[in-house]
Amino acid sequence: MSTSAAQQLVELISQAVKDIEIDTATQLPGATTSNINSPIVAPEDKLEATPKRRDAIRTLQASTHQLLATLMPAGSRLISIYSSYFEKVAIDIVVTGRIADLIHTADPDLSDGGVHVEVISEKAGMDPQKLTHVLRFLALRNIFCEVTKNHWINTRCSVPLRTDSQNSICNLLMHFKEVALPALLEFPRVMLDTENGGALSWDHSDSAFQKHFKPGCDPFEFMASTDGGYRAERFGKAMVEVTKALGNGEAEYKSYDWKKLGPQGTLIDVGGGIGAAAYDISTYLPEWKIVVQDRAEVAKDERQVSFPLLPFTYPAPNTERSSIFLEMKNYQKIASTANIEFEEADFLKGQPEHRLRKAAKPTTRLMICETTLEPPLLDRNSPILLNGGMATHLSHNFNITMLIMMNAEERSTETFSEIFDQSGWKLQSVSPLATVLLDRCIFEAVPNTFWKD
Fold first, then answer.
1. How far apart are the C-alpha atoms of 147 and 136, rounded to whole Å?
2. SS3 of the chain: helix, strand, coil, percent, to 5
3. Which residues of 23-58 are buried (b: 16+ CB within 10 A; e: fewer)?
């Protein structure tokens, strides 16, 4: 008798759990998985995403979702998915009310057996009964824990909702709430707007963000120029938070063969912010010179590093070996000192690319660090979809974000190859990074010697 799809998924889940636990014990000798109801930053949360650990977590994510879809009545499953907005609203309430902070302040070491909801609600200015309903809703999802009736503690999954936690994501969540969510709610109307052409338009001015906020500028200028620029400041903090939450430090870039670049040279990190990725990459290129380029206001806001003004193509024309490392999202614009603004696609196809391609030497390498998006096709050899199913959900979230904010999209490996071919470069390699639930790769290209301007 053949094994059912559901049983295959159960076996995949079981093996994934074993693999994760073994990897935890290997990287942290003697360690076990932390208790879900402990108000701590779990040490295993920041372990290196080794290939074994990454594959196991992705399998677990995909299999659990597909198992529910397989065995639950379809209507119940769809209602459950559609109702996820309740989770977002409940989290917004506790973040805005700083509930996790209040619990931690009142009983940081759990010596008092949790904090009574009356104490929490009084400090937060909320009705205790209403707050209880919200907390119990979240407790079902292991966010907060009611240890005894009406007494609450933080859990592993509520600690990131503290503003002072090393794994806090409060700025990120508030950015989503105030900037991304309003545009997201506008998106269905734009998608169906056949009367005004929005449905078929890929023009930046027809994005859901533009239709909702009507800012007359791109999202970054909007955040920087309105209400004292607090949104831009918060966005910068949010990007640090999301990097910590989804990234893996220097280990994230281990999969790329950095040694093949040679012992010395110059790497230009375009869209590198204040140098977080460049700092991690420098571990693998200790003798290389690292140049970080980004928007002028990014450099201006950084107080710990000096940023000189340099020509955009510096120092590629004047060095024996150079690499251009692009880590832009394709909605993010980079302003060079020549006052050229471009999106990633424009960079590869337009004037900036021509300048960079003309300056490139045979040893120059162009590396784009980006999210890749592959279609969720059926896999004949596995119950999980060919692209990893729900293991890729963050990549698809990012793609929807591109659509709503800039009317842009993430790309597949095939599309990147086509873009390179059209713009004087040739795809050399694709190196998946050690991010677990986000499919980021380094797409490496070399100058196409047959290209003619």
1. 11
2. 50, 10, 40
3. bbeeeeeeeeeeeebebebbebeebebbeebbbbbb
Q: Which CATH architecture has domain 249-372+411-447?
A: 3-Layer(aba) Sandwich (3.40)
pLDDT confidence of residue 193:
95
Given this model, what pLDDT does residue 385 score? 95
Give me the helices (H) in 363-439, please: 393-406, 413-422
Neighbouring C-beta atoms of residue 362, cutoff 10 Å: 7
From the list 52, 66, 138, 71, the residue with the least C-alpha distance to 103 is 138
223-241: average pLDDT? 90
Which position has the token pair 């998985």? 33
364-390: pLDDT as tens digits:
888 888 999 999 999 999 999 999 999
Provide the b/e sequence for 315-330 (b: ≥16 CB within 10 Å): ebeebebbbbbbbbbb
- Tens of pLDDT, residue by residue over 425-438, are 899 999 999 999 89
- Asked if residue 321 has pLDDT above 80, the reply is no
CA distance 186 to 403: 11
Q: For 194-211, give one letter per residue: b (16+ CB within 10 A) or e.
A: eeeebeeeeeeebbbbbb
d(CA 82, CA 76): 10
Q: Is 232 helix (H, G, I), strand (E, B) or coil?
A: helix
Buried b (16+ CB within 10 A) or exposed e, 116-150: bbebbbebbebeeeebbebbebbbeeebbbeeeeb
d(Cα 71, Cα 67) in Å, to the nearest integer? 6
The domain ranges of the chain are 5-80, 84-161, 170-244, 249-372+411-447
Range 84-161: architecture per CATH: Orthogonal Bundle (1.10)
